[in-house]
Design goal:
The chain is built from ten helices and seven strands. The protein has about 210 residues and is an alpha/beta fold. It has two domains: about 130 residues, Response regulator (Rossmann fold), CATH 3.40.50.2300; about 55 residues, Winged helix-like DNA-binding domain superfamily/Winged helix DNA-binding domain (Arc Repressor Mutant, subunit A). The longest helix is centred in the last third of the chain and has 15 residues. The chain is elongated, with a radius of gyration of 21 Å.
Length: about 210
């Protein structure tokens, strides 16, 4: 359970200078730093020892991935705030962190004030994912996560010319089933036509 009055934060990063800067920012914001870790295994050990309210976590660690740490945490706690602090600009890392159960995703190039704001928001709502400055990526990610594998295949089929019955046949499903998936896709994407769905999917790099 999160200590709302004086939450404890663990910092996980293999660079001492980064840990030092983050610690100063955390303590300057009135939060407590209960420990530091420089590797995946050390992070797991420190989390088990201190049971912190939140973790500031780098994804690239010398003995493995920070994603493993996220998964381990979520096996034991659904309320611990997990804020990813990374150099990575790759959308795939954001998507992986979100799917693993991270609370927020912040780039190391961002001001420390942004990290603190994200950390406080994550402590308040650990299951409400945020990524400051990356709203468009989150939009793509959320739509991608909401669409089922079958719906994604139907969406891709939509970009091909042909009547619904022909596209359905190519996917080995009935036209009625195809139309059911189509209705679900339209609802999730916030569109009302094939043309709009295809255009939005292309703009979001889903096709």
């Amino acid at each position: 359970m999160i200590d709302q009055i004086n939450p404890q934060i663990l910092i996980v990063d293999d660079h001492p200078s980064v840990r030092s800067g983050v610690r100063r920012a955390i303590e300057g914001a009135g939060l407590r730093c209960c420990g530091e870790a420089a590797s995946r295994d050390e992070a797991v050990a420190q989390i088990a020892l201190h049971d912190p309210d939140g973790v500031v976590l780098d994804l690239n660690l010398p003995d493995g991935s920070g994603l493993d740490v996220i998964s381990w945490i979520r096996e034991h706690s659904q309320t611990m705030a997990i804020v990813i602090l990374t150099m990575s600009d790759e959308d795939s890392y954001l998507l992986a962190a979100m799917k693993s159960g991270a609370s927020a995703y912040v780039k190391k190039s961002a001001p420390l004030s942004q990290l603190i704001a994200s950390l406080k928001a994550a402590l308040a709502q650990p299951n409400n994912f945020s990524a400051p400055g990356m709203a468009s990526i989150i939009s793509i990610t959320k739509i991608s996560l909401d669409l089922t594998p079958r719906e994604l295949s139907v969406l891709k089929a939509l970009s091909l010319e042909g009547a619904n019955k022909d596209l359905a046949r190519s996917l080995f499903i009935s036209e009625a089933t195809f139309k059911t998936h189509l209705a679900s896709i339209y609802t999730k994407m916030g569109v009302s036509s094939r043309f709009s769905a295809i255009n939005k999917a292309r703009n979001l790099n889903l096709l």
